[in-house]
């Protein structure tokens, strides 16, 4: 082998090595593929077989330049040359000496470098024991490194550990270990053997630390993979066992099906999709028979069943709507007009939201059925939610799914039942909701009935927002005043008053009778109702604002006649005024109408109840005594105060009506409201009590065909009242000809039915003196022709004693 002298400068063909650093006295096999490198090898073979090998800084560079190469390399001798196929060569080289590049004379057709030989430093100041310690350190680091390297050949380990000299140990380690190019290049360029060993120890310790971390990471990954494989294996076993036992699908298949359905929804918010997909992942990892799996499965199914994309095709046709409303209901002109307005607006502005109607009126007037007709007129699905007696907020919002037996609230259940995003939902009896320690359901309804909030209604069970803005909510109530004010503020009130006698007759003839005949299997030929027969049934056997009792009585007649038809007693029957008692028994309500004569101390008042208007007679008796005032008839506190005000006002006008000014000392006054078992309250009987007391004390009779309503003050002013429509209906049924009403209620006469206004004269009054003037049968026998205005009449300050009698 030829060697170079020190500081010899020679020119050699050169090869840029990719990822390999050559050392002196190192034998190396490698493949050559680049054309320039092959030409350099061939050129070296023509001469003395010496070639310069230098490492590239970046192995990805195909055409390296001077700056891409390290400066120090090795002059090597080509020992063996073989063709490796595909125009490549495989060579074996042996390192001769280190050299540094002084110049690159050519890059084409092959790289040629002028190099200067380098020699290692022969002198050292390191003591022998220090060098021995370094050798041991290198050996120990190498052994630790070998323990961490997987499948390290034993031959290499033996050859390294068998070295006795520091140089031999170094050469064996760098020749047989895979180290980064940068680290090997540092070792190649270092001249001092001791320093090379020190650097080698640092490199081995660094590699040992990296390999330790790699092993830890690998162990963790392996453990996780083993666990996942074990879980997968067990799940597959469970699936096969479940299929053999016939216990249904496995969670993996179910979760995939659920995820596919969730991804298929177009109108489902992304937030909701993400949450449901996470639940699907949880279901995937849950055993099929676990309790948690059942909870997750039920939750996902509930959310999927909601109508995220389904919409009914609305038909905003006013003519069609009017035809349906007239077909299903008689009368109700104001309600029908409002519904038709709603349909017309829907036609012009299909996207309008926030229309919430409240149908308020006595029972049996058709509030619930009108909502069903609205749904039919708009071609929407109809769902009814009964709120009567609801006291738990969870009934509206649902329960958290973490609780055992949890479920969605009534609103979400109604949406599932409807199957569309735009149904008509009837919230029936909204005034009957209550509150207790479980919460206030009316507060939960605030979000449901608010168009600014219900587009993102959150049920406690589903925990994701659901859009209720497309829903048309219709509520019903018997008493609108019982609805909490914030809730009432979100609704438009449509009053549905009592039916007149004529309306009940038309409803019975067109709707109730055909319905009950069909239900009982009786033909129209077998059972007929004459006009006077229906009127007799309405007047003598029902006393209600609606027609519910009337329908039950018609059903009663149908059952009676069905029995006779089956027993062949009759072939047909016609209900008339004369024979109605044969099937209905004695008349229940004797409508005597107005009193037969004018009476002293008896006045007909008008009252409002939740089932409609009623007439209420106030009777007053004056007895010798000590000025005690007794009130009976289950009157409330407000009504008792009205009686006290009435007595005080009568004292102020006593002289004008020929009444003794000291009657409050020598006379006892007993005020009674008949039907004592029925509680009564309210201020609207004030004018009635003033009239009754004045009549009783003065002896002037009250006209028999007069009724009145209104609150009275100490100065005699008549204040407005509510429920005028229902009260006027009661006066009409009673046969009253004249009704005194407060002046401020004059505007409410527009709501009174025309048939009532045709038969009753309404007299608006602002002062009770006008009531007395029109209600008393004749003027008082007084020196004055006209009563002194109450503003100038003296009011004595003597107290009036009120005794309250409780009637059980």
From TrEMBL:
<dbReference type="GO" id="GO:0034605">
    <property type="term" value="P:cellular response to heat"/>
</dbReference>
<dbReference type="InterPro" id="IPR054594">
    <property type="entry name" value="Lon_lid"/>
</dbReference>
<dbReference type="InterPro" id="IPR008268">
    <property type="entry name" value="Peptidase_S16_AS"/>
</dbReference>
<dbReference type="InterPro" id="IPR003111">
    <property type="entry name" value="Lon_prtase_N"/>
</dbReference>
<dbReference type="InterPro" id="IPR020568">
    <property type="entry name" value="Ribosomal_Su5_D2-typ_SF"/>
</dbReference>
<feature type="active site">
    <location>
        <position position="727"/>
    </location>
</feature>
<dbReference type="InterPro" id="IPR014721">
    <property type="entry name" value="Ribsml_uS5_D2-typ_fold_subgr"/>
</dbReference>
<keyword id="KW-0067">ATP-binding</keyword>
<dbReference type="GO" id="GO:0004252">
    <property type="term" value="F:serine-type endopeptidase activity"/>
</dbReference>
<feature type="active site">
    <location>
        <position position="684"/>
    </location>
</feature>
<dbReference type="InterPro" id="IPR027065">
    <property type="entry name" value="Lon_Prtase"/>
</dbReference>
<feature type="domain" description="Lon proteolytic">
    <location>
        <begin position="597"/>
        <end position="778"/>
    </location>
</feature>
<dbReference type="Pfam" id="PF00004">
    <property type="entry name" value="AAA"/>
</dbReference>
<dbReference type="GO" id="GO:0005737">
    <property type="term" value="C:cytoplasm"/>
</dbReference>
<dbReference type="GO" id="GO:0005524">
    <property type="term" value="F:ATP binding"/>
</dbReference>
<dbReference type="GO" id="GO:0004176">
    <property type="term" value="F:ATP-dependent peptidase activity"/>
</dbReference>
<dbReference type="InterPro" id="IPR003959">
    <property type="entry name" value="ATPase_AAA_core"/>
</dbReference>
<feature type="region of interest" description="Disordered">
    <location>
        <begin position="776"/>
        <end position="808"/>
    </location>
</feature>
<keyword id="KW-0720">Serine protease</keyword>
<dbReference type="InterPro" id="IPR004815">
    <property type="entry name" value="Lon_bac/euk-typ"/>
</dbReference>
<keyword id="KW-0963">Cytoplasm</keyword>
<dbReference type="InterPro" id="IPR003593">
    <property type="entry name" value="AAA+_ATPase"/>
</dbReference>
<keyword id="KW-0346">Stress response</keyword>
<keyword id="KW-0645">Protease</keyword>
<feature type="domain" description="Lon N-terminal">
    <location>
        <begin position="12"/>
        <end position="208"/>
    </location>
</feature>
<keyword id="KW-0547">Nucleotide-binding</keyword>
<dbReference type="GO" id="GO:0006515">
    <property type="term" value="P:protein quality control for misfolded or incompletely synthesized proteins"/>
</dbReference>
<dbReference type="Pfam" id="PF05362">
    <property type="entry name" value="Lon_C"/>
</dbReference>
<dbReference type="GO" id="GO:0043565">
    <property type="term" value="F:sequence-specific DNA binding"/>
</dbReference>
<dbReference type="InterPro" id="IPR027543">
    <property type="entry name" value="Lon_bac"/>
</dbReference>
<dbReference type="InterPro" id="IPR046336">
    <property type="entry name" value="Lon_prtase_N_sf"/>
</dbReference>
<dbReference type="InterPro" id="IPR008269">
    <property type="entry name" value="Lon_proteolytic"/>
</dbReference>
<dbReference type="Pfam" id="PF02190">
    <property type="entry name" value="LON_substr_bdg"/>
</dbReference>
<dbReference type="GO" id="GO:0016887">
    <property type="term" value="F:ATP hydrolysis activity"/>
</dbReference>
<comment type="function">
    <text>ATP-dependent serine protease that mediates the selective degradation of mutant and abnormal proteins as well as certain short-lived regulatory proteins. Required for cellular homeostasis and for survival from DNA damage and developmental changes induced by stress. Degrades polypeptides processively to yield small peptide fragments that are 5 to 10 amino acids long. Binds to DNA in a double-stranded, site-specific manner.</text>
</comment>
<keyword id="KW-0378">Hydrolase</keyword>
<dbReference type="InterPro" id="IPR027417">
    <property type="entry name" value="P-loop_NTPase"/>
</dbReference>
<feature type="binding site">
    <location>
        <begin position="361"/>
        <end position="368"/>
    </location>
    <ligand>
        <name>ATP</name>
    </ligand>
</feature>
<comment type="similarity">
    <text>Belongs to the peptidase S16 family.</text>
</comment>
<dbReference type="Pfam" id="PF22667">
    <property type="entry name" value="Lon_lid"/>
</dbReference>
<dbReference type="InterPro" id="IPR015947">
    <property type="entry name" value="PUA-like_sf"/>
</dbReference>
<protein>
    <recommendedName>
        <fullName>Lon protease</fullName>
        <ecNumber>3.4.21.53</ecNumber>
    </recommendedName>
</protein>
């Amino acid at each position: 082998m030829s060697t170079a002298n020190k500081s010899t400068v020679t020119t050699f063909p050169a090869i840029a090595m990719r990822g390999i650093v050559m050392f002196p006295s190192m034998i190396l096999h490698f493949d050559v593929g680049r054309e320039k490198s092959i030409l350099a090898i061939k050129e070296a073979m023509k001469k003395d077989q010496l070639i310069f090998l230098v490492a590239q800084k970046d192995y990805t560079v195909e055409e390296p330049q001077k700056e891409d190469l390290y400066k120090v390399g090795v002059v090597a001798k080509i020992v063996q040359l073989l063709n490796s196929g595909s125009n490549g060569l495989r060579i074996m080289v042996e390192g001769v000496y280190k050299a540094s590049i002084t110049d690159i004379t050519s890059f084409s057709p092959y790289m040629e470098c002028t190099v200067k030989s380098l020699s290692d430093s022969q002198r050292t100041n390191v003591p022998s024991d220090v060098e021995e310690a370094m050798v041991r350190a290198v050996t120990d680091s190498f052994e630790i490194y070998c323990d961490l390297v997987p499948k390290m050949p034993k031959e290499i380990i033996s050859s390294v550990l068998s070295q006795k000299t520091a140089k031999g140990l170094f050469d064996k380690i760098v020749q047989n270990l895979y180290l980064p190019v940068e680290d090997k290049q540092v070792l190649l360029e270092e001249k001092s053997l001791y320093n090379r060993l020190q650097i080698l120890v640092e490199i081995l310790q660094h590699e040992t630390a990296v390999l330790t971390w790699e092993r830890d990471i690998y162990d963790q990954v392996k453990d996780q993979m083993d666990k996942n494989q074990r879980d997968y294996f067990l799940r597959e076993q469970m699936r096969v066992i479940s299929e053999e036992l016939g216990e249904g699908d496995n969670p993996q298949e179910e979760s995939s099906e659920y995820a596919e359905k969730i991804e298929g929804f177009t109108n489902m918010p992304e937030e909701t999709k993400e949450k449901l997909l996470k639940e699907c992942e949880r279901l995937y990892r849950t055993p099929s028979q676990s309790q948690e799996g059942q909870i997750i499965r039920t939750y996902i199914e509930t959310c999927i069943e909601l109508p995220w994309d389904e919409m009914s095709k609305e038909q905003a046709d006013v003519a069609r709507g009017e035809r349906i409303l007239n077909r299903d209901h008689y009368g109700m002109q104001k309600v029908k007009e409002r519904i038709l307005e709603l349909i017309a607006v829907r036609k012009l502005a299909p996207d309008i939201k926030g229309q919430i109607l409240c149908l308020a009126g006595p029972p049996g007037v058709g509030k619930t059925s009108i909502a069903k007709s609205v749904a039919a007129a708009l071609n929407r699905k109809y769902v009814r939610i009964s709120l009567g007696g609801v006291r738990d907020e969870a009934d509206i919002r649902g329960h958290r799914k973490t609780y055992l037996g949890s479920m969605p609230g009534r609103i979400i259940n109604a949406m599932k039942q409807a199957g569309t995003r735009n149904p008509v939902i009837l919230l029936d009896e909204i005034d009957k909701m209550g509150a207790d320690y479980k919460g206030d359901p009316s507060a939960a309804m605030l979000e449901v009935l608010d168009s600014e909030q219900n587009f993102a209604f959150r049920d406690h069970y589903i925990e994701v927002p659901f859009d209720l803005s497309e829903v048309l909510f219709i509520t019903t109530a018997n008493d609108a005043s019982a609805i909490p004010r914030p809730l009432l503020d979100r609704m438009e009130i449509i009053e549905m008053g009592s039916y007149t006698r004529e309306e009940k007759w038309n409803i019975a003839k067109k709707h109730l009778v055909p319905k009950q005949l069909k239900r009982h299997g009786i033909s129209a030929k077998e059972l007929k109702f004459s006009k006077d027969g229906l009127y007799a049934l309405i007047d003598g056997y029902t006393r209600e604002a609606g027609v519910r009792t009337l329908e039950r009585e018609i059903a009663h007649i149908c059952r009676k006649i069905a029995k006779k038809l089956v027993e062949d007693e009759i072939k047909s029957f016609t209900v008339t005024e004369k024979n109605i008692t044969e099937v209905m028994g004695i008349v229940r309500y004797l409508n005597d109408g107005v009193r037969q004569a004018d009476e002293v101390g008896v006045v007909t008042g008008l009252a409002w109840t939740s089932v409609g208007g009623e007439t209420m007679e106030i009777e007053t008796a004056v007895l010798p005594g000590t000025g005690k005032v007794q009130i009976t008839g289950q009157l409330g506190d407000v009504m008792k105060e009205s009686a006290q005000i009435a007595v005080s006002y009568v004292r102020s006008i006593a002289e004008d009506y020929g009444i003794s000014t000291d009657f409050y000392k020598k006379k006892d006054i007993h005020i009674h409201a008949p039907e004592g078992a029925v509680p009564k309250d309210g201020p609207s009987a004030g004018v009635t009590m003033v009239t009754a007391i004045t009549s009783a004390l003065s002896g002037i009779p009250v006209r028999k065909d007069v009724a009145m309503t209104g609150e009275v003050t100490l100065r005699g002013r008549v204040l407005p009242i509510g429920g005028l429509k229902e009260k006027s209906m009661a006066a009409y049924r009673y046969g009253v000809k004249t009704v005194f009403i407060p002046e401020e209620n004059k505007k409410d006469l527009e709501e009174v039915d025309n048939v009532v206004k045709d038969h009753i004269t309404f007299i608006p009054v602002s002062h009770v003196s006008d009531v007395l003037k029109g209600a008393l049968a004749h003027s008082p026998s007084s020196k004055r022709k006209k009563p002194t205005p109450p503003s100038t009449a003296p009011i004595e300050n003597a107290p009036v004693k009120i005794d309250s009698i409780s009637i059980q």
